[in-house]
Amino acid sequence: MLYQPRWLLLASDFGCPVKDCALAYYTSQNTKKPLSRSRELGAKLVFAALQVLKENSRELAGRKVIELVEQRVVLDEWALSTFEKSGYVRWVSMLHFFSIDLMKAGFLLKRKGVWYLTDEGEAALQLGERGLFEAAVAKYQVWRSENPKIRREKENTEDPEEVDVGEGEQRQEATLQEV
Questions:
Q1: Cα–Cα distance measured from residue 97 to residue 111, given in angstroms and rounded to the nearest whole number
Q2: What is the pLDDT of residues 116-147, one digit of tens each?
Q3: Which of 6, 109, 140, 152 is a plausible cystine mate for 104, CB 3.0–4.6 Å?
Q4: What SS3 class is residue 129?
Q5: How far, in Å, are 97, 163, 172 from residue 150 at the CA level?
Q6: pTM score of the predicted model
C-alpha cells in the first residue's frame, strides 16, 4: 500500500482541525495571493533540500545539503547578501530557519549534522514548492499551539523547580555576575 501522510488525505476523513495541513494544501492550490519575497525563497529552498535528500538515499550531511541546494536554486543578489548584524548569508539562514518547520511537520530529521528525509517528507514533495512550504508552516503552527513557550516571570514563581520545562527542552539561567 502506498504511504499517504495524514495531511494528504481529505480533511473530512480525519476531522483535521482548521490549522492542519489539509487546509494549507487546499489554500495553496486555490489562492492567488503571492508569498512574500522571504517566504517565496524559503519555499524554493526547503523544496530543493528535500529533493536533494531524496536523490541521495534520503540522508546527507547538512553541509552537503546546503552545497547542493546552492547549485540547484537560482539565487539573486538579495538572497546572496549577508545580514548586517550577524554576517550570515541570507539564503543559508533562511534554509536553516525554515528547516525547523520541516522538522516539526515530520518531513525532516536532523541528527548529529546529518539530515534525513522521512516518508512523510518524501510524500510532501508531491505538493510542489508552495504546497510543501505551506503544509510545513501549517504543521509548525499546530505544533506551536500545542507547545506554548514557557515564560517564567519572577512574580509568577520564585522557585525554578516549579517551572515545567517539558521533555527535551532545556532552560538556562544566568546571574548578572555570570554574564
A1: 16
A2: 999 999 999 999 999 999 999 999 988 888 88
A3: 140
A4: helix
A5: 21, 8, 12
A6: 0.69
Strand partners, 116: 59, 109
Phi, psi of 110 (to 5 degrees): -130, 125
- 3-state class of 156 per DSSP? coil
Cβ count near 129 (within 10 Å): 19
Residue 28's nearest CA partner among 149, 165, 128 is: 128
Stated as kind and residue range, the H or E segment containing 134 is helix 128-146
C-alpha grid cell for residue 14? 480525519
Q: Please, which pLDDT band fits residue 60 given cuts at 50, 70 and 90?
A: very high
Per the listing, cell 541528527 goes with 111
Residues 6 or more apart in contact with residue 123 via CB below 8 angstroms: 3, 4, 5, 8
Burial class of residue 89 (count of CB atoms within 10 Å of its CB; 0-12, 13-18, 19+): middle
**Degrees, nearest 5: CA angle 147-152-155:** 140
The total number of residues shown for the chain amounts to 179
Mapped onto helix, strand or coil, the DSSP state of residue 16 is coil
